């Protein structure tokens, strides 16, 4: 265990060092928020994949593999396919807009009021994304090092807040590429083959697990469809993802490297699900299936190697936590803070953005201390995002009759409906996304047709 701690401490020191190195490059607002719009293919692919593959994608997919088998990969698969979709169909026009936030598109099509309303939804979503991975960081550190949960949250989450605050997107990009390499080596090339070997090989998995564990649909078509509605479309409108798109040096980088990142996410999901299957064979009666990942790491790996894999898990979690945090601070600084600046515009400095990142980092830590289930929390975040913003955003781009009143009504009713059905049916139910999209769609069309619509339309051709 001592060797493991040394490996992890070296990793943490490297992340903090890269964070402070990034501060030297983050001198302007554009540097701090979108890395100067200057990332090449290697950095872009690494940072995009690392952004998506966080707490739910790693810890959650291993859990799903433990419970359902191969079909647990659908969570990562829908996220990865969403990355491919946004890379092929939206990256090129988004780069032409030279903006910082999703909500700026809504302002161009509707009004400043629509931007403000959507920014409130996006802020909640981004804070939850940051908190979810911080929770997972706490879970991993707590199980493996026998630390109280709150101590793990404050240590692990505090590191993320520190390097995100000082260097912004440049720090995130530098740390993400290291995190991408570590998580690939640690989980895909070390933990997966070693856990399969400990379980007796692939033939032993086939012999010891039910046949349903090798079906790609055992998790249920209703769940697969819900994952597509929530995660695939959520990728298309998430501030954390758009902000990564804005960092690309060129349209070709965004299209090719982004698609490669999406394919990587699908394969990563398969690897995580297989790790969960091996854990089911080796530890069939876990008291808490959320601990499947930490338990298989403890059981299958020797000292030193275990530390590398723990670092890989922390890499995946920290990258997504930092992405959510920076997305939240960008939304607050660029979309909400200008309302209080009284006509001074949104030209916030890098210093002001650092203040927002630090303050919202404290909020993320507070949320992480009171929420527990990472998949439920992720579902809640995406239910609010997709239910409240998908319809108005698509209307802004593709429907000439869309109106500001219709957009605001859709955001309000879609989000409210998602909240109501999450309360009635539970966070993991399928009904919140179905009913919220229905309510948002009907209100958007009806009120847009009853009110005077804008004649302009955002062009993404």
TrEMBL record:
What are the subcellular locations of this protein?
A: Membrane
Molecular function terms in GO for this entry?
symporter activity
State the Gene3D superfamilies in the record: Sodium/glucose cotransporter (1.20.1730.10)
Per its UniProt record, what InterPro entries does this chain match?
Na/Glc_symporter_sf (IPR038377), Na/solute_symporter (IPR001734), Sodium:Solute_Symporter (IPR050277)
- Key words, A-Z: Membrane, Symport, Transmembrane, Transmembrane helix, Transport
Membrane topology per record: Multi-pass membrane protein
One GO CC term, this protein: plasma membrane
Q: Transmembrane segments in this chain: where?
A: 6-23, 43-66, 72-95, 116-141, 147-166, 178-196, 216-238, 259-283, 308-334, 355-375, 381-399, 406-427, 433-451
Pfam annotation, one family = SSF
Give the family per the record.
Answer: Belongs to the sodium:solute symporter (SSF) (TC 2.A.21) family.
- What is the protein name stated in its UniProt record? Sodium:solute symporter
Q: Which organism is it from?
A: Pseudomonas marincola
């Amino acid at each position: 265990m001592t060797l493991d701690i040394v490996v992890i401490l070296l990793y943490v020191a490297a992340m903090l060092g890269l964070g402070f190195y990034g501060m030297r490059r983050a001198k302007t607002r554009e540097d701090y928020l979108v890395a100067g719009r200057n990332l090449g293919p290697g950095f872009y692919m690494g940072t995009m994949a690392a952004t998506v593959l966080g707490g739910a994608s790693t810890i959650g997919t291993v859990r799903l593999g433990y419970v359902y088998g191969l079909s647990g990969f659908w969570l990562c698969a829908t996220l990865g396919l969403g990355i491919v979709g946004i890379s092929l169909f939206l990256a090129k026009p988004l780069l032409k807009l030279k903006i910082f936030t999703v909500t700026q598109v809504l302002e161009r099509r509707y009004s400043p009021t629509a931007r403000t309303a959507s920014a409130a939804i996006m802020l909640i979503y981004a804070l939850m994304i940051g908190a979810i991975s911080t929770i997972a960081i706490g879970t991993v550190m707590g199980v493996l090092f026998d630390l109280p949960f709150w101590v793990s949250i404050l240590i692990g989450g505090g590191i993320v807040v520190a390097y995100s605050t000082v260097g912004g997107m440049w720090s995130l990009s530098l740390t993400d590429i290291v995190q991408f390499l570590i998580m690939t080596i640690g989980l895909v090339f070390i933990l997966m083959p070693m856990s399969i070997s400990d379980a007796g090989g692939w033939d032993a998995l086939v012999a010891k697990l039910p046949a349903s564990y090798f079906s790609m649909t055992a998790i249920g078509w209703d769940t697969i469809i819900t994952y597509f509605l929530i995660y695939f479309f959520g990728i298309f409108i998430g501030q954390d993802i758009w902000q990564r798109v804005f960092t690309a040096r060129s349209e070709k980088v965004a299209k090719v490297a982004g698609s490669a990142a999406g394919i990587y996410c699908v394969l990563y999901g398969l690897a995580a699900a297989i790790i969960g299957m091996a854990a089911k064979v080796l530890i069939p009666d876990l008291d808490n299936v959320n601990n499947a990942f930490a338990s298989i790491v403890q059981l299958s790996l020797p000292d030193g190697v275990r530390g590398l894999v723990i670092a890989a898990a922390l890499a995946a979690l920290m990258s997504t936590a930092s992405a959510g945090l920076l997305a939240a601070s960008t939304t607050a600084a660029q979309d909400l803070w200008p309302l209080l600046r009284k006509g001074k515009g949104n030209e916030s400095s890098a210093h002001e953005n650092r203040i927002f990142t630090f303050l919202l980092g404290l909020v993320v830590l507070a949320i992480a201390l009171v929420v527990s289930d990472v998949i439920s929390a992720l579902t809640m975040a995406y239910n609010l995002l997709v239910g409240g913003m998908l319809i108005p955003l698509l209307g802004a781009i593709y429907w000439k009759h869309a109106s500001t009143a219709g957009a605001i009504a859709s955001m309000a009713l879609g989000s409210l409906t998602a909240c109501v059905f999450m309360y009635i049916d539970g966070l993991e139910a399928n009904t919140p996304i179905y009913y919220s999209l229905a309510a948002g769609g009907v209100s958007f069309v009806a009120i847009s047709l009853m009110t005077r619509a804008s004649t302009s339309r955002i062009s993404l051709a």
